[in-house]
Amino acid sequence: VTSERDKVAAMLSDTVCKFTAKLEEYKHALQITEERAVAAETDNHSLRNALKTTATERDTLRTTIDTERATTFEVINDYQARVSKHLTQIRSLEELSQKQQAQNGVLIEQREEARKKLLILQGVEESQNVQISDMRKQINALEKEKRENK
User: Fold this and answer.
1) CA 84 – CA 107 distance, rounded (Å)
2) In angstroms, what is the C-alpha Rg of the chain?
3) DSSP letters of 36-104?
4) 105, CA 20 to 30 Å: which among 27, 74, 121, 136?
């Protein structure tokens, strides 16, 4: 009986030892799992914070892009308005230049006509001067004759 009791006791002791060993193994596995869970929770928290930061940065970049886009469109519109204004001024200056060239052409023609008339008048003046000179000579000759006849 004692021997059987010793056998049962040894079996029980062996089973308890195996159970205890398994229990320790499970405790150790549970501790590792809990540590991993805490690490995962920390990582998850860090990832959430990083995600929030990224979302904030994304929103900031969107705002910056929208602002830059609006500013760029304003600059482009202002530039286009200035270019349009300059083109209008250039067209006006071209029209004015064409009018001035036409007026210059008319003035050149008028100057040429005036020059021709001046040459004609100079010719008439010379002719009249010659006639006046001839008349003076005749008058002088007549006066001389008149004096001689007296």
Assistant:
1) 34
2) 62
3) HHHHHHHHHHHHHHHHHHHHHHHHHHHHHHHHHHHHHHHHHHHHHHHHHHHHHHHHHHHHHHHHHHHHH
4) 121
Helix/strand number for the chain, H first, E second = 1, 0
133 φ/ψ sector (left φ>0, alpha ψ -120 to 50, else beta) = alpha
User: What distances in angstroms separate CA 28 from CA 23, 36, 37, 140, one per listed residue?
Assistant: 8, 12, 14, 158
Tokens of residue 115, six digits? 């020059």
pLDDT of residue 5: 86
For 13-38, the pLDDT digits (tens) are 999 999 999 999 999 999 999 999 99
Q: Which residue has the tokens 């270019």?
A: 83
What single letter denotes the amino acid at residue 142? L
**30-48 mean pLDDT:** 95
Within 8 A by CB and 6+ apart from 93, the residues are none
CA 3 to CA 5: how far, in whole Å? 5
pLDDT of residue 62: 97
Q: What integer is the mean pLDDT of 46-52? A: 96
